[in-house]
Amino acid sequence: MSHDSKASPAATASPEDPQAGKLGPGEERVLPSSVKQTSVYVYEAPLRLWHWTNAAAILVLIVTGYFIGKPLPTVSGEASDHFVMGYIRFAHFTAGYILAIGFMFRFYWSLVGNHHAKQLFRLPLHRRDWWREVWFELRWYLFLEKRPRKYVGHNPLAQLAMFIFITLGTLFMIVTGMALYAEGALRGSWQDTLFGWVIPLVGQSLDVHTLHRLGMWVMITFIIIHVYVAIREDIMSRQSIVSTMISGERTFKDDDPL
Amino acid sequence: MEPIETFYDVMRRQGVTRRSFLKFCSLTAAALGLGPAYTAKIAHAMETKPRTPVIWVHGLECTCCSESFIRSAHPLVKDVVLSMISLDYDDTLMAAAGHQAEAALADTIERYKGNYILAVEGNPPLNEDGMFCIVGGRPFVDQLRETAEHAKAVISWGSCASHGCVQAARPNPTRATPVHKVITDKPIIKVPGCPPIAEVMTGVITYMLTFDRLPELDRTGRPKMFYSERIHDKCYRRPHFDAGQFVESFDDEGARRGYCLYKVGCKGPTTYNACSTIRWNEGVSFPIQAGHGCIGCSEDGFWDKGSWYARLQDVHQFGIEANADQIGGVVATGVGGAVAVHAAVSALKRAQVKRQSSANREEA
User: Fold this and answer.
1) Which of A6, A206, A217, B259 makes the best surface tag, with the fewest CB within 10 Å?
2) Does B340 share its domain with B285?
3) What is the 3-state secondary structure (H, E, C) of chain B?
4) Which of B248, B269, B312 is facing A213, going by the closest CB pair?
């Protein structure tokens, strides 16, 4: 059984013991399909809301950010009749704030939320069995394992990827983004007080712009991998993935203990 | 030792009327962004304070800072050089030469120990014991260290002294090094720019003489009064940027209409300087007004950030020169391709497993 299942109180309700754990009404059920599917409540509502808000914010940030660096073709007419870059930048900054506030909320939720909410912020790096599971998952993605394992929350490889791309990646984008925003907010603004040190640390403003843009490409790469793996796992693994982030319920496709 | 004259004494001796003197004080106050009340303060300071001696040394540089400085309009450089500061040593501007000049330098250091301001134009090369820049028969770095030892403060004129500029650009064969990395125990004011704006230079000096303290500096040591905002923040073409009206290429319709130069690589959005407010040559113009983008000359390492005509800077870490979009595009395409291949293999595997399991079921 996975590390995650062992460590989590919810996971003691793994399918072979349907009565264990407090799952709430209707969360442990037999679905009317040929294969028995059981479910566990994994992602709480605030967390799911954060996920989709965050996804929307990132989407807006990437599209607007791309056009801030490489603006759309020139519009003709009077300057006073248009505000194209103005609106694009406004959308970028607004989405940026949503991302940043969402990130702070997500950290708060890792303190008060359930066991799975902690996964994005706490990696059990010291645990050998966790690393073994990372290795196992790598082998699964390299087609070297025939049968995937069951996980209630993220599998360890996914957890590692989430931590690098979402926790560290978002933090990097927030810090560099706020530093760039502080340039427009001017010296003495709270953005400048909190994040202005980033620019001399990196070198100069242009360097921070470049890093921020490279960060955008990292996020694009992450989205490609994330969406692909989520859909693939939904089909090939033994638990639900995509629907779990909508309903919060993780369903399992079989009753096998391992 | 005769008492040192005050600024006012000197100005009167120069034939400057009291009226002109007060006019100068109010102009200086305005140039420094101070309120009208400061005019009297400046006048009082200049009437009572002895002139501050300035030693101006030149390392690896092109003298564009001096060229800019002597074109200052407000205050007129004549006022600054002849009246306000006692420019005791400046090998480019001074009349003396050779041993006479070196004697003047030694004399100034001895006489005003701890009280003079050291203005550095250019920077010292450190490779080969500094042999790439010789002043008076000795490496410039030695002269810099000696003059800095007893200085009250150091002014780093221009991008050379502040950041290294062109002589420190990759691969920097002489190891030209900005002043603050050689002199570490003195307050240093960076006045970057290639060259800095004349009024900024005289403004900084006037502030220091009038108030007898350093101007307020930002995180990187630049005076806040001139380097707090980017060119972009005060650019008169900014409305075209916000509207999304850009020069797509030089000499196009947008260029004729004076649209924003962002797309042809203007570095205004990443450059801290006062060009868009003070402008150049008595406020006549500045690069963007002349139809060319800002090249970011007052920013650290502006020679090594890729083309002046491209929006995205070059990234050298990969051995080849590429910008963020090229690198990101390659990575994203590569990962996208890998995902497609992985998906195809996954589908094949799944089909294989399904066939096997249905075969197993049939056997059973």
Assistant:
1) A6
2) no
3) CCCCCEHHHHHHHCCCCHHHHHHHHHHHHHHCCCCCHHHHHHHHHHHHCECEEEEEEECECCCHHHHHHCCCCCCCHHHHHHHHEEEEEECCCCCCCHHHHHHHHHHHHHHCCCCCEEEEECECECHHHHCCCEECCEEHHHHHHHHHHCCCEEEEEHHHHHCCHHHHCCCCCCCECCHHHCCCCCCEEEECCCCCCHHHHHHHHHHHHHHCCCCCECCCCCEHHHHCCEHHHHCCCHHHHHHCCECCCCCCHHHHCCCECHHHCCCHHHCECCHHHHCECCCCECHHHHCCCCCCCCCCCHHHCCCCCCCCCEECCCCCCEEHHHHHHHHHHHHHHHHHHHHHHHHHHHHHHHHHHHHHHHHC
4) B312
